[in-house]
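Known limitations

Structure tokens in this collection are predictions and should be treated as such. Users comparing against experimental data should check residue numbering before alignment. To illustrate the layout, the record for (2Fe-2S)-binding protein is reproduced below. The input appears on top and the generated tokens appear beneath it.
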Amino acid sequence: MHSNINLVINGRSHSLVVPANTLLLDLLRWEVGLTGTKEGCGEGVCGSCTVNVNGELVRSCLTLAVQVDGKSITTIEGMADGDTLHPLQRKFLELGAVQCGFCSPGLIVTADALLKSNSDPTEAEVRDALRGNLCRCTGYVKIIDAVLAAASEMRSHAHE
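Generated tokens:
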């Protein structure tokens, strides 16, 4: 059985016909070609597949595409403005918060949601917000530093 769905992904409208059991992760990667979102565990535990759906963080490996029909989705690719990286993306690179990079898209999308609700988080608040995103490479110190640095930069640009 197939379903017609309409989505806005990173600001672009998409009308798709998909099997009813298609995961949002697979739709993004294989139907739309946005491969930044990664599948880590396939069980919703690691956070690598996190995307923003209508302002809510969603594990795309557990979400059926039909469940997001009519909604707006932002992936890691949608955070940049053309060739200009989002401050979080840039700070992850500049501060070495990326090693293998597999978990980075989910971490960055999650951090973005935090900074939209709290523009001046403490280190403890950043750690709490990212607790559902697992990283095997970095030890989290540089990730926390990158989120805090991006928050500071974003606050300073907001006052300009």
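For this record: The domain at 87-158 is CATH 1.10.150.120 (DNA polymerase; domain 1). The helical segments are 24-31, 87-94, 104-117, 123-129, 141-158. Please report discrepancies through the issue tracker.
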